[in-house]
Design a protein that fits this description.
277 residues; mainly alpha
Length: 277
C-alpha cells in the first residue's frame, strides 16, 4: 500500500496550478486581441482614433458602414466568398475519395503516405509564387477566381484527406460488407450506408477548407490584380486606409474563421483517427 507524502501532495498542487495558469495565459493571449478588435470595430470612427480606448464597445456601426461603402470592398468580399466556395467544393471532391481509399485499402507505405500528405503543407508557398505566376499567365488562369481557387484547393486537400480518412476509419467496414451481401455495389453501399453516417463530418471538413481559403493572402496578392479577394484587398490598401477600416476588415476576416473552427474542433482532434479508436 502506497502512502502519499506531504511533498508529493505539494508537487501535485503546484503542477495543477502551473497547468491552470498556462491555460489561462494561452486563452488570454488569443482572446484579448480579438476582444479589443471587436471593441474598435463596434466603436465610432472618432473613438477608434482617440485615446484612451474604451474597455466596452459602444455598439456603433459607423466603422462597419464605412467598410461596406469603401470603394471595391464589397466586390473583394464577394470574390472571397466565391473563391472559398470553389475551394470547399473541390477540396471535398478530391479529398474525400482519397480519404476513403486510405481507410479501406491496405498498401505498402500507407503510414508514410499519410505523413507526406501533411508535409505538403510545410512546403513554403513563396517558393512556388514565381513558377505559379508564369504557369497561370501561359494558361490564361492569371487574375481569375478559378485559378486562385485551384491554388487554395492544393492547400486544403491535405487536411481534407486526413480528416475524411479519420471519419471513414470510424465507420466499421462490416456495415459495407453487410450491404454487399444484400446486393449493393461498393458505390451504392457507400452512398446509402457510409455517406449518411459521415455527412456531418464531411460538412465540417468542407467548412475547414472554406476557412483556409478565406484567410489565405499570399497567393491572392501575387496571382490577382483586378479580382482580388478581401485579404489581398486589405493588404493592398493597408497603408492608405483609415484605422477604423483596418479594424472592421480584420473583424470581418476573423469572425467567420473563429465560428467555423469552433464548429469543426472535434474533427481536428480526430485528424489521425485518435478519437475513433
Amino acid at each position: 500500500m502506497t502512502t502519499t507524502t506531504p511533498n508529493t501532495v505539494q508537487v501535485r498542487k503546484s503542477g495543477r496550478f502551473l497547468f491552470r495558469a498556462s491555460v489561462v495565459l494561452l486563452c488570454a493571449w488569443v482572446l484579448v486581441p480579438i476582444y479589443f478588435l471587436m471593441i474598435n470595430t463596434l466603436s465610432s470612427p472618432e473613438t477608434v482614433s482617440s485615446f484612451p480606448k474604451p474597455f466596452f464597445p459602444e455598439f456603433d456601426l459607423g466603422s462597419l458602414t464605412f467598410f461596406a461603402n469603401f470603394a471595391g470592398m464589397l466586390n473583394a468580399l464577394k470574390n472571397s466568398v466565391i473563391v472559398a466556395t470553389f475551394t470547399m467544393i473541390m477540396a471535398i471532391a478530391f479529398g474525400a475519395p482519397a480519404g476513403y481509399a486510405l481507410s479501406r485499402f491496405e498498401f505498402r507505405g500507407k503510414e508514410t503516405f499519410r505523413v507526406l500528405i501533411l508535409l505538403t503543407r510545410a512546403f513554403p508557398l513563396p517558393l512556388l509564387a514565381l513558377p505559379l505566376a508564369v504557369l497561370f499567365i501561359r494558361t490564361g488562369l492569371d487574375d481569375t477566381l478559378f485559378g486562385l481557387a485551384l491554388v487554395h484547393t492544393t492547400l486544403a486537400i491535405p487536411f481534407a484527406v486526413l480528416i475524411t480518412f479519420s471519419l471513414f476509419s470510424g465507420i466499421p467496414i462490416e456495415l459495407e460488407e453487410a450491404a454487399w451481401t444484400l446486393g449493393c455495389t461498393r458505390f451504392t453501399a457507400f452512398t446509402k450506408v457510409v455517406l449518411p453516417l459521415i455527412a456531418p463530418g464531411i460538412a465540417a471538413s468542407a467548412i475547414f477548407a472554406f476557412v483556409i481559403s478565406w484567410n489565405e493572402v499570399f497567393a491572392a496578392a501575387v496571382l490577382t490584380i483586378e479580382n482580388r479577394t478581401l485579404t489581398a484587398f486589405l493588404l493592398q490598401s493597408l497603408d492608405t486606409s483609415p484605422l477604423h477600416l483596418k479594424f472592421a476588415g480584420g473583424f470581418i476576416l476573423v469572425v467567420p474563421a473563429l465560428v467555423f473552427i469552433f464548429a469543426v474542433r472535434k474533427y481536428l482532434f480526430a485528424m489521425w483517427g485518435i478519437a475513433n479508436r
